[in-house]
Design brief:
- There is one protein chain.
- By secondary structure, this protein is an alpha+beta fold.
- It has 2 domains: about 80 residues, no CATH class; about 70 residues, no CATH class.
- About 25% of the residues lie in helices and about 30% in strands.
- The chain has 4 helices and 10 strands, in the order αββββαβββββααβ.
- The strands form 2 sheets. Strands 5, 6, 7, 8, 9 and 10 form a 6-stranded antiparallel beta sheet that branches. A 4-stranded antiparallel beta sheet has the order 1-2-3-4, with helices on one face.
- Helix 1 packs antiparallel against helix 2.
- The longest helix is centred in the middle third of the chain and has 12 residues.
- It is elongated.
- The chain starts with a helix and ends in a 9-residue tail after the last strand.
Length: about 160
């Protein structure tokens, strides 16, 4: 499970819930997954890849009046059981081709299977966010005269689309 997928699932249960990843400062655990309610920490699971500790994995909850639901805990555990390297979403990029009127971006028109230039706003018929893998496949298959090193603009996490 990806962090973004876990977040969507807990937000369906309660819009005030969120899941975050972090690092443990003690060097006993390789990472930690936090479950928050309106920003307040309510539960967490430590991941351990450190052979020096007997606590391979550890679940804790905060001493608070807010108690996570069973379903929220199941989502936290499912995310925890996903290997750490598989939890991150692949980064997506906008392809900015000009800096006029707030930016001109490459859009892929899905039905027509061709490109056009417009805003970076995604609409059902146009894809505006792309992975590096998609960009690299175009470099091999097309002759788009774009300076890719200058054109790629990372999509902020809260703007990433599901497609």
């Amino acid at each position: 499970m990806k962090y973004s997928e876990a977040n969507k699932k807990v937000k369906k249960l309660d819009s005030r819930l969120s899941i975050e990843s972090g690092k443990d400062g003690s060097d006993c655990f390789s990472s930690v997954i936090y479950l928050r309610h309106s920003g307040r920490l309510i539960a967490w699971i430590y991941d351990s890849e450190n052979a020096m500790t007997d606590n391979k994995d550890l679940f804790e909850s905060a001493n608070t009046s807010i108690h996570p639901s069973y379903k929220a805990i199941k989502i936290l555990i499912e995310l925890h059981e996903t290997p750490v390297e598989e939890r991150e979403d692949e980064k997506k990029y906008y392809i900015k081709v000009a800096s006029i009127d707030g930016g001109l971006y490459l859009n892929y028109v899905k039905e027509e299977k061709n490109f056009t230039f417009s805003t970076k706003n995604e609409i059902p018929t146009h894809q505006t966010q792309f992975t590096k893998q998609e960009v690299n496949s175009w470099l091999k298959a097309t002759t788009l005269a774009i300076d890719w090193d200058k054109a790629l603009e990372e999509v902020p996490g809260d703007e990433v689309s599901d497609d």
